[in-house]
Amino acid sequence: MLFDFIYYNPTKIYFGKNSLSYLKEELKKYGKKVLLAYGFSSIKKIGLYSEVIQILEDSGKEVFDFPGIMPNPTYKKMMEGAKIVKDNDIDLILAVGGGSVIDCAKAISVSAYSKDDPWNKYWIGRKEVDNKIVPVASILTLAATGSEANGGSVITNEELKKKKGRVFSPEVYPKFSILNPLYTYSLPLYQTMSGIFDIFSHFMEQYFSGEDDNVSDYLLEGAMRSLIHSTEAIMVNSEDYEARSNIMWLSTIALNTMLGVSKPQDWEVHAIGHQISAYTLCAHGMSLSSISPSYYLYTYKYGLEKFKRFAINVFNIQEEGKSSDEIAREGIETLKDYIKKYNMVSSIKELGVNEEMIPLIAKSTDKGGAYKTLTEEDIINILRDSYN
Ligand code: NZQ
Ligand code: ZN
Q1: pLDDT single digits (tens) 232-270
Q2: What is the CATH number of the domain that holds 147?
Q3: Residue having the nearest C-alpha atom to atom 20 of ligand 1
Q4: What's the domain range around 366?
Q5: Among 183, 208, 229, where does a domain finish?
Q6: 37 with 169, same domain?
Q7: Which string of b and e fits 186-195 if b means at least 16 CB within 10 Å?
Q8: Which atom of ligand 1 is the closest one to the Cα of 201?
Q9: C-alpha distances in Å from residue 191, one per residue of 1, 186, 255
Q10: With CB atoms 3.0 to 4.6 Å apart as the test, which of 19, 141, 288, 306 could cross-link to 201 if both were Cys?
Q11: Segment holding 339, helix H or strand E
Q12: Residue of 381, 353, 224 lying closest to 295 (CA atoms)
């Protein structure tokens, strides 16, 4: 049975090679002052920075440059941006980059006018935003998080060693997002693959939950098959436009919240992955690839039929002569092979986790899980399995 739900996604998407040409028209809807938020060097290297600056100047905007948003954006960096926004009465935050830049822009948007400490109020306290929200828009350069069309904002509090996501209401979603697959050609293979596994994980976190006949599960199977197909295509040719565009759109579809609204979801792999990143600052997608097989091998028995279905429908595992348990395990083993074949990280050791960190990561992880609610001990077991 489908849950009752309200679905509303206000982000307007401009997709394709020509998508930047719509920026000028969109900018007319906002005031003069624009905070241009971005990371380090990538958007300058691909010439996107100068193109965007030109469009902003042609549109008569006053640009406030905000560079240096790091992967796994920190609370401190976000608060720097919030101060600029408040002090200068910024009208629009334009995020140009990957999920970290867009997440940071949303965090700045809700924090700039918050009278209380935003970390405690919004990320820990999960309160509704009751202060002014500054509009955010994005130009995406990395297919991964879905941040370009959702209210998610994941921030790392370095002092507390806690990385925490928060999903804000539709007022905080990007007003528009520009998605040009050509921008992703310059990504190092490591970042491309990290992004792809993040997308894969978003599908699995929504798929491995519930047992009803739910339309989302069929859509998720198709989406996962498409992602596997396109992963192979870009290994053969990293400038395969068809594959790059499929991957970019899959990143949006995976987390624009449409697929998950009608069913229970998991997200425990993300909870553990976030704490691995909090301790090592590793790439988000790789934190997920390093633990997913261990997590699923640890929990599959509690949702056996779904894991069997995944093996057959996503990885084409043959059923004849095998028990449900064997089929389900073969599916997870094939996921492991996929991770290895495409140079994704398969061990937390490779990400910089050491023996001493394991209990700290387990203790600080938010406990949950769809088919099994994990305890601290369960998380230690999963981390050790991925460590060895
Ligand atoms: O800083 P620059 O020079 O721009 O380099 C970036 C960065 O080092 C580089 N990059 C981006 N586009 C590029 C490029 N390099 C070459 N060519 C390009 N076109 O890639 C590096 C990583 O960027 P980042 O934004 O950190 O990657 P990603 O998009 O994977 O974002 C990860 C962050 O998003 C959060 C993650 O936890 C993590 O903090 N997530 C956000 C979600 C949401 N809002 O819904 C959900 C996700 O599950 C995730 O948690
Ligand atoms: Zn993710």
Answers
A1: 999 999 999 999 999 999 999 999 999 999 999 999 999
A2: 3.40.50.1970
A3: 191
A4: 188-385
A5: 183
A6: yes
A7: bbeeebbbbb
A8: 48
A9: 38, 10, 18
A10: 288
A11: helix 324-341
A12: 381
